[in-house]
Each structure stands twice: as structure tokens, then as C-alpha cells.
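Human: We require from you a protein record containing the residue sequence and its fold in C-alpha cell form, and nothing else.

Assistant:
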Amino acid sequence: MTVSDILLVLLVPFVGTVLGSAFVLFMRNEISALLQKTLLGFASGVMVAASVWSLLIPSLEKGGILPASSGFLFGMAFLLLIDYITPHLHLGNSQPEGPRSHLSKTAMLSFAVTIHNLPEGMAVGVVAAGVMQSVSEISVASALAVALGIAIQNIPEGAIISMPMRAAGNSRRKSFFIGCLSGIVEPIGGILVILLASTITPALPFLLAFAAGAMLYVVIEELIPEASQGSHSNMSTVGFAFGFVLMMILDVVMG
């Protein structure tokens, strides 16, 4: 895997955030419920499939049950702790959670998305590290597929950040910039994991499972509840099916 391949894999999720944030430059109203539900469902299907084939299965085959199960639980616990200790606002939820804060709801939503983007960047980084260490179960196609799935999820997230910023009175350019900024932690998290995995090779199975746990936490805590609320929730189910099948094809057939 060349340096240019690594940069491409790390930057693809950030591009998804940029594309979603760009909605504020062209749209007067919020993203339609139909499109949002479909995208959220599609992203959920991709991320669930990626967590199994690109992360958990390679973790089990390379390290066995102990690092896979412990890493998965630590990944879940890590995001659970983040949710508990930081003021945040879940997608589609008007009630803040976590410790009491004087931050605005828009700021708390931005903060939540930014923090949750970190483990997603770690997931891309650990798959890239697996390719670099020639793990047979992980291919360049698998790494790109994981990055693409997270990028798709980041499109509605970018719009959900930037458009409320515009509604709060900020300029379109400032709203776009803030939306993009929420995704910058993804390539940073990916780079940190690559550096860690390259220095502590035995940690790779644990990190693969950790990333799977973190990604599934985001799916269960954020994407599925938001996709299931309100109208057009059936489209999220359709989106999930297509996303899961697409990721299965990329990982099993192309990988």
C-alpha cells in the first residue's frame, strides 16, 4: 500500500463530511426526510457489514477470541464513556445529554458529531494498518470500502451540522467551514492508529475489534434511532439492505 493509497483512504471519509456540509451553500431548506432516512439506512448497512467482514473477522483470524472480544467491548465502552462525560446532542434529539452545559444545542450537536467521527477515523486507520502489515484477510479494496461507507454516513451528518448553523444566523461560508471542521478529526484519528499499529504489531487484532465496537456503537446509538423516527422510516430499511449487500460484495468478492 503506497503513501498515496493511505492518504486516499484516510481522506475519503472527510470528503463525505465536506460534501454534506456543502448542502448549506446550495439549499435553502433542510435536507429532505426521504433522502436523509435513505442515506442513514444505507450508511448503517455498510457500517454493520464493514464491522463484521473488515474488522471483526480479521481480528478473530489474526488474534483469536480474546483480543477480538475484549477489543470490541472496549470500543463500545469508549464511546459510551465519551457520551457520558461530554455534553452532546444526538441526531434528531432536542434534549441534550451528558453533563449540564451552557453550550448551545447547535454547538453540542457539532461537538457530538466531532467526537464520534474520531473512532470512525480510527476504523479506517486500523484497516489501512492491516493492509500495510499484509494481513491476508484485509485488502486495499476492503480499506477503500470501509472508507467509502463512513463517507456516505458523513454526508447527512455534515448537512445536519452546517444547515442549523446557517439557521442560527451564521453566513453560508462560516456554516460550511464549521461543518467541514467536524470531520477533520477522522484523518487525524486514522494517522494515530496507523502509527500505533506500526509500532505495536500485536495490538492490531485488538484495534480491529475496538474499531468494530466503536462503529457499531455509532450505528446503534445514532444512526438507527434517527433513521427509525418520523416519516419514511421504511426507506431506511431499504437503504440498510442495499448498503449491507454492497459492503458484502466489496469485502467478500472484491476483497
In short: DSSP finds ten helices and no strands in the chain. The two ends are 14 Å apart (CA to CA). Residues 3 and 47 are 25 Å apart (CA to CA).
